[in-house]
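Comment thread on ticket #2218

A.B. wrote:
> Attaching the input chain for the structure job we discussed in standup.
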Amino acid sequence: MLDDASRFFDVAFLDISMPGLDGLQLLKKIRESSLLRSVEVVISTASSDRATICRAIDCGARHYIVKPFTEATVNAKLDQIASAAKR
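C.D. wrote:
> Ran it. Output below, let me know if you need it in another format.
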């Protein structure tokens, strides 16, 4: 879906543990793509250890939420992204 130029995404939620291509590998591809570079990516994972967070940042993550999360957490993250986009 991300490779389809007729679609536009503002935000993508990626789990680090995904089958085939993990979330960090996909994040790298998104950051390397001129078409997708502006997509805000939220990494969601059960891993809250510093090494995992640092790996995500190194891959280009600017947003990170730890599972389990609530609807309020997701809404707060989306509000934060929307506020930053208005600046």
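A.B. wrote:
> Thanks. Noting for the ticket: DSSP finds three helices and three strands in the chain.
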